[in-house]
Specification:
333 residues, alpha/beta, Arginase, Chain A, seven-stranded parallel beta sheet, 10 helices, 14% strand, globular, binds {5-[(3-aminopropyl)amino]pentyl}boronic acid, binds zinc ion, metal-binding, histone deacetylase activity
Length: 333
C-alpha cells in the first residue's frame, strides 16, 4: 500500500496546550510523524490540488483566518503560538471582527489548538496528502494511507479544535462524492470526530460512523452521544457508538462489527477510515486498552468488507509505540 506524506507537515510544532488548568507540553509533536515514517519506510509526495477541494468543505472566511492568523498574532506584538482566550458561547449578531483575539474566539473551539508560523502550510499539505491518497484509490488501488499531521476530525466547516484545522477525512469524502462515489466514513480514533459529524450531519449522501470514548468522560464532551442520528436528509446516516474507559479488544470488536454492518447497509462503495492509534493501551491522553496486534485484527475485519479504503491518520500519542501500531494496522490490510 502506498503511503503519502509531505514533510512540510513538520512545520506545525505547537508548544503548549491547556491541560487540567495549566499549560502543558502539546501532545501533537512532530516526533509522531517521525515514528510512523521510521516504521513504514518509503512514501510518495502529494500533488497540489489547490484550494478548491478545501473550500468545498470549509467556509472561505475560515480559510482566510487560517492563512492569516499567525501573521495577525505577530502584528499584534505577540510571540509564539496564537491561542484564544475568549469564546462567543452566546450567539450574537454578525460582527466585523478584526482583533486577533476576537478572530481566535470566533474560529477556534478550545485552548488546545494553537496556531504557529508553520501551521497553515502543514495543514494545507496534510489535506493535499489525503487528496493524493484518494487519487490512488480512485485509480484502482485497494487502499492507500495518508500520513496526515496535524489530524483533522475535530475541525468543522468554520472552526479549528482538538488539534485539528482542516478536516482531511471530510475533504476527501467530499472529493470522492464529486467523483461519483458513495462514501462512508468510519472514525476509530479514541475521540469522537465531531467536526466530521458536523460537516455531514444534514446530508444523506455520506454516512458517518464513529466508535469512541463516552463524551460524558472524554473530549470533545459536547458531541458524540449515541442519540445524535443526523438531521433532515441526513437523519439515520450518523451513528455514534460509545465505549467506556478501559475497553479492550473483546468489547471493541462487537462495536466494530456493528459499525461495518451499518456501513454495508449504507450502500457505500468507498470507505474513508479516520484512523487514530490513541485507542492503544499505552496512550498517554486516552483510556482504551487495545494492544498492537489488535490493530491487525481491526484491519482484517475492515478489509473484509471489500471496500476500497483511504486510511487517514488522526490521533495517537504513545510516540514510542505509534510506528509499530500504524505499521501493524497497514499490514493487516
Ligand atoms: C485529538 B484527536 C486529555 C485532554 C485531551 C484534547 C484531545 C484532542 C485529541 N485529558 N484534549 O482526536 O486525537
Ligand atoms: Zn483522538
Amino acid at each position: 500500500m502506498i503511503t503519502v506524506f509531505d514533510d512540510r507537515q513538520f512545520g506545525h510544532r505547537p508548544v503548549h496546550e491547556f491541560f487540567n488548568g495549566a499549560l502543558a507540553a502539546h501532545a501533537d509533536t512532530p516526533a509522531r510523524a517521525t515514528g510512523i515514517l521510521r516504521a513504514i519506510g518509503d512514501t510518495v509526495a502529494p500533488t497540489d490540488h489547490g484550494m478548491a477541494p478545501l473550500a468545498a468543505v470549509h467556509d472561505p472566511a475560515y480559510l482566510t483566518f487560517l492563512t492569516e492568523a499567525h501573521d495577525r498574532w505577530l502584528a499584534a506584538g505577540r510571540t509564539g503560538d496564537a491561542i484564544g482566550y475568549a469564546w462567543p458561547v452566546v450567539g450574537r449578531r454578525p460582527l466585523d471582527l478584526t482583533r486577533i483575539d476576537a478572530l481566535l474566539g470566533r474560529y477556534t473551539a478550545d485552548a488546545v489548538t494553537p496556531i504557529g508560523a508553520g501551521t497553515w502550510d502543514a495543514t494545507y499539505w496534510g489535506a493535499q496528502t489525503a487528496l493524493t491518497a484518494l487519487d490512488h484509490v480512485l485509480a484502482g488501488d485497494r487502499s492507500a494511507f495518508a500520513l496526515c499531521r496535524p489530524p483533522g476530525h475535530h475541525a468543522g466547516r468554520d472552526y479549528a479544535g482538538g488539534y485539528c484545522f482542516l478536516n482531511n477525512a471530510a475533504i476527501i469524502a467530499q472529493a470522492a462524492v464529486g467523483a461519483g462515489r458513495r462514501v462512508a466514513i468510519l472514525d476509530v480514533d479514541y475521540h469522537h470526530g465531531n467536526g466530521t459529524q458536523d460537516i455531514f450531519y444534514d446530508r444523506g449522501d455520506v454516512t458517518f460512523v464513529s466508535i469512541h470514548a463516552d463524551p460524558h468522560t472524554d473530549f470533545p464532551y459536547f458531541w458524540g452521544h449515541p442519540d445524535e442520528h443526523g438531521a433532515g436528509d441526513g437523519l439515520g446516516a450518523n451513528h455514534n457508538i460509545i465505549l467506556p474507559r478501559g475497553t479492550g479488544w473483546a468489547d471493541y470488536a462487537p462495536a466494530l462489527d456493528r459499525s461495518l454492518d451499518l456501513i454495508a447497509a449504507s450502500g457505500a462503495d468507498l470507505l474513508v477510515l479516520s484512523f487514530g492509534a490513541d485507542t492503544y493501551e499505552g496512550d498517554p491522553i486516552s483510556g482504551f486498552a487495545l494492544k498492537t496486534e489488535d490493530f491487525a485484527t481491526m484491519a482484517h475485519r475492515i478489509a473484509a468488507t471489500g471496500l476500497p479504503t483511504v486510511i487517514v491518520m488522526e490521533g495517537g500519542y504513545a510516540v514510542d509505540a505509534l510506528g509499530s501500531n500504524v505499521a501493524t494496522l497497514l499490514s493487516g490490510f
